[in-house]
């Protein structure tokens, strides 16, 4: 349950007058699970079985603070500051320390929304919206692709909804840390980015069309072009989704296409999920991969559920993608996972 407390309870930085006008919401997720991974396929050599207890298998454990102030005349100011936390290790581990997830401030009104700070990448959000596994667990498809999960130094505009249609514009002067000055083509190293996304949501139908450019200053203007289209239709008994994605950068010898088809069905307290998708390398032969997954959630309450999932990757001889629950682990010709077959189970509580 979300708990609202006055700002005085978490910080003594505002005036007494502000306390009567502004509330801060504390929210979070506590997620802990176990996973077993093994298997070999294509360029992934034989691996011994690996068992782990880990935080955030279903989705990253976190705690956050957000608030809104009514400025009058339909204008409101808002902020959010969210931190990732680890539940499974001591403070001596970097994964157990608080890490900055989303942190931004903005204004919204009849003109739409303008926000600035560190925010989710638009394309990353599309993958995690239309993947039935929502970018988490062994089953997620997002891990098969190149991803920047959050973008630093960013500003975005989100239009009002016009009969189901919407528009998102985003710019970042440095996608990963300080604004770039180095010459490199490495995915994830700080660069500038430009995004335009069209959205449509009307009843059971949802769709996204996104175009992004990532520019590497100091490298002669090397660019990565990205185009993504996705959609879903909720039939009630089952929700079907599909996605196709294209990335290319001639300087980095990068040209690949990804696709995914997914299904999600609520059955009483159960939610059954499945997906299948592939990545095709259009430069190097015999470097494609295919992943499929099955999973189930069981609701213990409105805020607590348990989950179990299975996933498997089949690589061509020239591909070495490995399986992981981390959606942002993609690499050019592999990913920072382990093995090619995995199972997980865990529990998550949101507040």
Task: Provide an overview of this structure.
The radius of gyration is 21 Å and the shape is globular. The chain has 2 helices and 18 strands. The protein is mostly beta strands and 351 residues long. Helices cover 4% and strands 54% of the residues. The chain has helices at 16-19, 122-130; strands at residues 3-6, 23-38, 50-55, 62-72, 75-84, 99-109, 112-120, 150-158, 165-172, 192-202, 205-216, 222-234, 239-249, 254-267, 270-281, 289-299, 304-315, 341-350.
Roughly how much helix do the residues carry, as a percent range? under 10%
Gyration radius, in Å: 21 Å
Spatially, the strands of the biggest sheet line up as: 2-4-5-6-7-8-9-10-11-12-13-14-15-16-17-18
Structure class: mainly beta
**Average pLDDT over all residues:** 87
Query: Please, how many helices?
Result: 2
- What shape does the CA trace take? globular
Tell me about the biggest sheet?
16 strands, antiparallel, barrel
Question: Helix-strand pattern, N to C?
Answer: EHEEEEEEHEEEEEEEEEEE
**Binned strand content:** over 45%
Find the count of extended strands (DSSP E, 2+ residues). 18
Spans of at least 5 consecutive residues whose pLDDT stays below 50 are 1-20
What is the straight-line distance between the termini?
A: 4 Å
């Amino acid at each position: 349950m979300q708990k609202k407390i006055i700002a005085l309870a978490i910080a003594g930085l505002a005036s007494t007058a502000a306390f009567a006008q502004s509330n801060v919401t504390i929210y979070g997720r506590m997620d802990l699970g176990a996973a077993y991974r093994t298997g070999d396929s294509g360029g992934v050599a034989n691996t011994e079985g690996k068992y782990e207890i880990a935080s955030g298998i279903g989705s990253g454990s976190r705690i956050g603070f957000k608030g809104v102030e009514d400025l009058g005349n339909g204008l409101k100011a808002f902020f959010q500051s969210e931190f990732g936390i680890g539940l499974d290790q001591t403070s001596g581990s970097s994964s157990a320390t608080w890490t900055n997830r989303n942190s931004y401030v903005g204004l919204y009104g009849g003109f739409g929304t303008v926000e600035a700070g560190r925010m989710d990448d638009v394309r990353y959000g599309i993958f995690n919206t239309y993947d039935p596994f929502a970018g988490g667990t062994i089953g997620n498809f997002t891990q098969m692709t190149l991803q920047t999960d959050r973008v630093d130094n960013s500003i975005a505009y989100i239009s009002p909804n016009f009969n189901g249609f919407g528009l998102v514009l985003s710019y970042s002067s440095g996608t990963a840390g300080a604004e770039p000055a180095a010459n490199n083509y490495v995915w994830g190293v700080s660069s500038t980015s430009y995004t335009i996304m069209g959205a449509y949501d009307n009843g059971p139908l949802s769709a996204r069309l996104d175009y992004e450019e990532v520019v590497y200053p100091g490298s002669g203007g090397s660019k990565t072009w990205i185009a993504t289209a996705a959609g879903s239709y909720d039939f009630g008994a089952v929700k079907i989704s599909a996605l196709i994605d294209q990335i290319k950068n001639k300087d980095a010898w990068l040209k690949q296409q990804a696709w995914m088809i997914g299904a999600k069905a609520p059955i009483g307290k159960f939610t059954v999920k499945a997906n299948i998708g592939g990545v095709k390398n259009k430069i190097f032969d015999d470097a494609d991969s295919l992943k499929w997954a099955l999973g189930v959630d069981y609701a213990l309450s409105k805020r607590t559920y348990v989950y179990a999932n299975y996933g498997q990757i089949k690589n061509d001889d020239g591909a070495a993608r490995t399986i992981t629950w981390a959606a942002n682990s993609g690499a050019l010709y592999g990913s920072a996972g382990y093995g090619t077959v995995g199972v997980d189970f865990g529990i998550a509580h949101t507040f």
